[in-house]
Design brief:
Blueprint: E1 4-10, E2 15-17, H1 30-39, H2 46-51, E3 62-68, H3 69-77, E4 88-92, E5 104-107, H4 111-120, E6 125-130, H5 132-137, E7 144-149, E8 158-159, E9 170-177, E10 183-189
Domain Bacterial bifunctional deaminase-reductase C-terminal: 61-183
Protein name: Dihydrofolate reductase
Pfam family, one: RibD_C
Length: 191
């Protein structure tokens, strides 16, 4: 069975973005970007992989990405209809029109049922790109968390997951700190 990994950047107070989807306040240094681009090359958007010469690099962690409509739309707004061309892309939305890309599947039915089907298939891991509502719906299906905790307090914004009160435990597997003050925390679901 494949793992679903929620890989996300958050502020110290737990927000993935500002109230209007702002993310430009996260401090990213060239050294930090290099590490993430190397260790997590699979989840770099296709145009970023191409710019770095890695578009033909083999996948090592993930072969599928799932996301909500609001995570997908920014790419589409700039004319990119398949932002992760190297990954199978599944977009969950009840109001979004299919972009007509062979690699992009738009699902308007139950995200939990579709993710369970994906997890039962053979292959590499599944990357949950966001957002908060989808992460909340899929919380019980998330096997791993990779949290980039940035040294910023936002005050308000979009939480890491929108979910009714239901404490869910994860075990800390690894902690690493970087030159920009970011700490990357890796967790696995406590069973």
């Amino acid at each position: 069975m494949r793992d679903l990994t929620y890989y996300i950047g958050v502020t110290l107070d737990g927000f993935i973005a500002g109230p209007d989807d702002e993310v430009d306040f996260y401090p990213v240094t060239p050294a930090f970007a290099e590490v993430l681009g190397t260790e997590f090359a699979d989840i770099q958007p296709a145009h970023v992989r191409a710019a770095g010469g890695g578009e033909d690099e083999p996948l090592t962690r993930f072969d599928t990405v799932v996301m909500g409509r609001r995570t997908y739309e920014p790419a589409q707004e700039v004319g990119i209809t398949d932002p992760y061309a190297h990954l199978r892309t599944v977009v969950f939305s009840r109001s979004f029109d299919d972009p007509g890309e062979a690699n992009v599947e738009v699902v308007s039915t139950d995200p939990v049922a579709r993710v369970r089907q994906l997890k039962a298939e053979d292959g590499l891991g599944i990357y949950l790109a966001g957002g908060a509502s989808l992460a909340g719906v899929l919380l019980d299906e998330i096997d791993r968390l990779i949290v980039k905790k940035y040294p910023v307090i936002a005050g308000t914004g979009i939480p890491m997951a929108r979910h009714p009160f239901s404490p869910t435990r994860f075990a800390l597997d690894q902690v690493r700190s970087f030159d920009n003050g970011c700490v990357v925390l890796e967790y696995s679901r406590s069973r």
